[in-house]
Amino acid sequence: MNHHFTITGFADEIGPSLTEQIAVLQANGIRHIEIRGIDGVNVAVFSDDQAHAYHETLTAAGIQVSSLGSPIGKITITDDFAPHLAKFKHVLHLAALFEAPYVRLFSFYAPAGERIASYQAEVITRWQQFAAAAKAYPQITLLHENEKEIFGETPEAELALFDALADDQVQTAFDPANFVQGGVTVFPHAYDLLKNRIAYVHIKDAIASDGHVVPAGFGDGQVKKVLAALAAADYHGFLSLEPHLAEFGGFAGLEQTRVSLPPAAQGDGAQAFSTAAAALRKLLQELDEAWQ
């Protein structure tokens, strides 16, 4: 069995400068990027000039944009929506400039002391407006991420949102670590419920007992089983590294982390990203060997 995964990643975890981000991506043999921030500026507030310049730099380096990791939907459900919707429309415009096929979004937080589930109707109404705005960009798919404490933090809530929208332009960015941190069994439970809506995968794992993030395969996110199931289902898509690592105790055991990093890209972020990349490649190698 062959898999058709393409590795990408949140390169702002490497460091703020695009030069450093590109250097570490290239050192790890990665030719795609999920843009969340560059030079300490969030992607949602880039100007057109910034977007054009960054896109030219990435293209010259042989790197394509897989997705914009936007913060859209990461506000309280009772906050004024009009300016947020305007920001989302700007993000869509930027995604077109970057030739990004995906934009990541969230489904809102509850006011303090309340439960977001009680705001389901308002969440759906706002997402209907997101989906309507995206119709002007049929080449872009909206990705709902199962972030902890937002409406769609569980697979059941995500399905409720997807069913209400009934829109194939809205899919999920499946994040195993977020499910672990929310007390959800990733595989087979979350995977089986969402498998028909998985258009993108965040490669992040976590320990259930305390929620701390570890490289893929070292936690309770059943990442290897998820990847095996996706490969068996002929998933053609991105695996996006989102390390969220500080100091990881298993670093020495990942021989493949010994990539040659440029002198300007030797910081903790570069090492953490390379560790995450090595862990993912180790899982993929194990899958390949199991299929031979």
TrEMBL record:
Keywords from the named record: Isomerase
Xylose isomerase-like TIM barrel domain: residues covered: 24-244
MF (Gene Ontology): isomerase activity
PANTHER family assigned to the protein according to its UniProt record, in alphabetical order: HYDROXYPYRUVATE ISOMERASE, INOSOSE DEHYDRATASE
Record protein name field: Sugar phosphate isomerase/epimerase family protein
Organism listed in the record: Lacticaseibacillus yichunensis
